[in-house]
Amino acid sequence: MFRIKHLMLLLIMLCSTLLAAAQQKVTGRVIDAAGNGIPGVTIRILQSNRGTIADVNGRYSLEAENGSTLSFTFTGYKTHQIVVNGTTVNVTLQEDYANLDEVVITGLATTVKRSNLANAVATISAKELYGVAPAQTFDAALSGKIPGALITANSGAPGGGISVKLRGVTSIFGNSQPLYVVDGVFISNVSVPAGLNLITAAASAGNPQNQDNPSSRVADLNPEDIENIEILKGASAAAIYGSKAAAGVILITTKKGSSLGKTTVRFRQDVGVNQVRKLLGVRQFTEQTAFDLGGATARDNFIAARNAGKLYDYEKEMYGEKGLILNTGVSVSGGDDRTGFYFSANRKSEEGIIKNTGYLNNALRLNVDHKLTDRISVGLRFAYMNTSADRGLTNNDNNSVTYGVSLATIPQFLEQHPDALGNYPVNPNAANPLETRDKMRNNETTNRFITGGEIKAVLHQNDKTNTKLIVRGGIDFFNLKTEAIFPRSLQFMKGGLEGASIQGNTNNLNTNLAGILVNQFSATPDLNFTTSLGATLETSYLDNIIASATNIIPSQTNLDQASNSNLQQFRLKYRDNGIFVQEEVLIMDAITASAGVRFDRSTNNGDYKKYFVLPKASVSWNLAKMPFWNIQTINSFKLRAAYGAAGNVAPYGARFLAVTASNTGQQPGSLVDTQFGNENIEQERQTEFEAGLDVSFFNGRLSLEATYYNKKIFDLLLRRNLQPSSGFAQQWVNGGDLQNKGIELGINAIPVNTKNFRWSSTVNFWKNTSEITRLTIPAFPLGAFGNTLGNFFIEEGKSATQIIGTLGTGKGVGVLGNAEPDFQMSFFNDLTLFRNFSLRFMIHWKQGGQNINLTEYLSDIFGTSHDYDDDDNGNGIKDGLDRMASAGKNEAAIRVQNSSYVRIREIGLYYNIPIQKNRYIQAVNIGASANNWFTFTKYKSYDPESSNFGSNTLSTATTRGSTGVSTGVEVTPYPASKRASLHLSVTF
Q1: DSSP category for residue 6
Q2: SS3 for 453?
Q3: What average pLDDT is seen over the chain?
């Protein structure tokens, strides 16, 4: 017995000695090619769950056995692996010029290296998004940066309003805007109208669509909090997100804390100026042209005004303000190996180019990540945003009250300025725009909370397999208050509404929850499987109330200080849920194959219990990683193909027959809506096939990405016209099919890379064409104001965005143009000189595509167009008269105009001030930038980007929202602006 005890003790001591010998402490330093330490590098022991992070000097230490393999990864550098053979392992990381080792999200809980990616996923870094020339809002900052996207500014009004279409038109009447996901939280991007139709009557004639053109709610986001953005442009990439992904998915990842054990404080201050991009000018009258306009009275008024020095440029007075831009931000980030945190506070204020307009955005964010144990980690995300936008009164109207319509009626000699007592002269043809600007108010104020959380737990792990559970949820809540005040002293209020107060209150709550199991199995070092299984649930509840009051007591704005009032309420509620499974296989780190299927259902569908099946599959083969590859100049050569299906649920209420309030003789009642419900309505179904080639040359200094896609949409959600005898006007139906085809090309190059000078350049090209391949209802016009002015027309066998119009009296109707561009290109360049100077600029070229320009038409009608007296075609007839003659002959082509442009979207010059090493200040950066400062176009109005009907506008029982095709219709918009700013940032 004694011998056995001693033998066991000896055995334990021997094992302990062997274990101690095996688990040695390995130390080292990670540096770049210039010998500088790289902080934050992740060092992981392969086939284990152990690892560490390099400190601020690039140094690290961990326990590892001889013979084990260490993997070194860091964004922007190539992954490096090395076998441990001793106690010191120093590593030099090479820059990943082609971003081949960049990790890209491929599922709700899985990722893959870009070198193995089977889809064309676009990525926008924080530097590209906001590091050149900051735009006013997040959505505006996306312009020109996404290959395959048509991004259009609906209006230049403060607070934004952007339409984003990925790979063409996705739906005619259904959702046509992408899904935005912020740190796993599905956020709302609905645009809520303010009830301005009571004032403008814009939707009362010509087109029933809402034309308030409100802000897009995604504009609330603070761009400075964003770390990177990934854009899943079609169903082949976004299928795993199901029926919300038909128009693509934009994945936004915000900044996190570090694990370096050091707290970093960053302060930023921007000061700039905002001014109109282009003024059209005003007609310069003479005695004769004044007589031609209004006879002897007009001529006498002109002479009197000229002699008194009172010939005015009202356009410049209205749109010529120079607005001050102030942006102040502070962020604090830090943490250790278990906890990381990021906190930011930002305040942005901008004055508009029109007096009494402007934008304010206050934002707070707190991100916390914590490892409870080596197997369980949690992450919390919290953001609060308070925004306020004073948007003025622009766009179309049928009461001649908006700024632009009123301006079109005023010749330069008509006095519109107030007298010494503050009384404004009457405009005999419309409202006095100076009075309207000075007295009215149109404000949107939002308070928004976006909160998300995630728990990751490793359930099982060994050398071969790893199983983890991910539970992720989020809440997006906003309260939007709209206030439109029109005092009774306004010219157009007298004898009519006698003052109006229109106040709206909208509460919107979106929630999403997902539970996902992920198993990673390494059969061999060259064969790895990743299996995902999960369920998701999304809900939404919107409550919109608009109260309007007229005949208001002077100087009052409260709704109860009026003799007449009206109340409208619209509530929207739905629930979507899905189940999915996905399998991914990686062979030899060269061949990637994946397949998955999602089952989706929604309470918006006719049969809310029915699951729709949405499959996906993809494969990629990087030949350059195969043993037989021996072409040294080509370090990546990847072939890829992908297929996926997605859905687009029916708009809320398509199943039902809505009722509207109708009170008669002080007795309450209800009237049925003119839109008949369809209990059999189904969601649109979309399939997409894409194939591509990615090649990287010269160790990543030159790379090419080429993609072809074919996207088909089946069972289009349409509104068909009903026979008047039915008692209804329209009904929702699944009535057609749509196809989009396109190509996307991208070239990335680093032509020069020396110690003192570096030049990196990216060129993108993309083109899309669409076709209505099936239509089961009669062809129908859509989205403008009739054939005599140019209109969209949905017709089988033709483009979904074709513009038709009358060809002349008795000549019928023909195709006049297309809103879809012929192609688009972008050029991004980043030049660094002596490591401290940086010049960055982006050029965006949109070739082709037509707008329907009705701003010019209104000015022609009242004889005030700036070029009315010109004679460009040399026919001896004034251009204004020529255009009106064409209108008289029903020639709509004169209003359909080419909207091509070349725009220097962003240009910025920055300098890193050399700072001697000290305890307090790490870096100081100064710079100057310009946004949309230079635009080259022949388009004959304020800006070739315009949309009178907005995008993603809420559709209710009393107002029809925006459609997927009606961009590019211009009616006296808020003019686009350009911005110049000075920047200072200090890192402590």
Answers
A1: H
A2: strand
A3: 89
- The backbone torsions φ and ψ at residue 649, rounded to the nearest 5 degrees and listed phi first, read -65, 155
Place of tokens 């194959």: 593
Nearest alpha-carbon partner for 359 in 253, 228, 487, 222? 222
3-state secondary structure of 486: strand
Query: Residue 15 and residue 612: Cα distance in Å, rounded?
Result: 58
Query: 7: which residues sit within 8 A by CB, 6+ positions away?
Result: none
Other residues' Cβ atoms within 10 Å of the Cβ of residue 870: 12
Terminal-residue alpha carbon distance, the chain = 68
Dihedrals φ, ψ of 94, to 5°? -95, 140
> How many whole angstroms separate alpha carbon 15 and alpha carbon 389?
71
Alpha-carbon gap, residue 876 to 147, rounded angstroms: 46
**Residue 607, number of CB atoms within 10 A of its CB:** 13
Instruction: Locate 24 and state its tokens.
Output: 């040695």
Q: By CB neighbour count within 10 A (0-12 exposed, 13-18 middle, 19+ buried), where does 67 fall?
A: exposed
- Report whether 783 contacts 963 (CB < 8 A): yes
**Contact call for residues 471 and 515 (beta carbons, < 8 A):** yes
- State both tokens at 493: 């209020």
**Measured between alpha carbons, how far is 863 from 648 in angstroms, rounded to an integer?**
47
**Residues of the chain by 3-state class (helix, strand, coil), percent to 5:** 15, 50, 40
Around 946, how many Cα atoms within 13 Å sit in the side-chain half-sphere? 30
Q: What CA–CA distance (Å, rounded) separates 638 from 703? A: 11
For 938, other C-beta atoms within 10 Å of its C-beta total 10
Count of positions (residues) in the chain:
988
Nearest to 987 by CA among 898, 936, 918: 918
Which residue, 179, 110, 78, 228, is CA-closest to 618?
110
Tell me the backbone φ, ψ of residue 935, rounded to 5 degrees: -135, 130
Of 642, 621, 615, 594, nearest to 236 by C-alpha is 642
CA-CA distance, 147 to 764, in Å (whole number)? Answer: 6
How far, in Å, CA of 241 to CA of 536, rounded?
9
Supply angle C-alpha 416, 418, 421, rounded to 5. 155
Rg (CA), the chain: 31
pTM, two decimals, is 0.91
Burial code (b: 16+ CB inside 10 Å, e: under 16) for 431-453 equals bbbbbbbebbbbbbebebebbbb
Q: What's the CA gap between 420 and 638, in Å, rounded?
A: 75
Query: Would strands 527-552 and 500-524 be described as parallel, antiparallel, or unpaired?
Result: antiparallel
What DSSP line would sit under 173-208, residue for residue? SS--S-EEEETTEEE---B----THHHH-TTSSS--
Cα distances from 397 to residues 303, 363, 623, in angstroms, run: 32, 35, 60
Q: CB of 256 within 8 A of CB of 342?
A: yes
d(CA 86, CA 70): 12
Q: What is the pLDDT of residues 854-899, one digit of tens each?
A: 999 999 999 999 999 999 989 999 999 999 999 999 999 999 999 9
Render pLDDT for 324-361 as a digit per residue (tens, 0 to 9): 999 999 999 998 888 999 999 999 999 999 999 999 99
DSSP 435: H
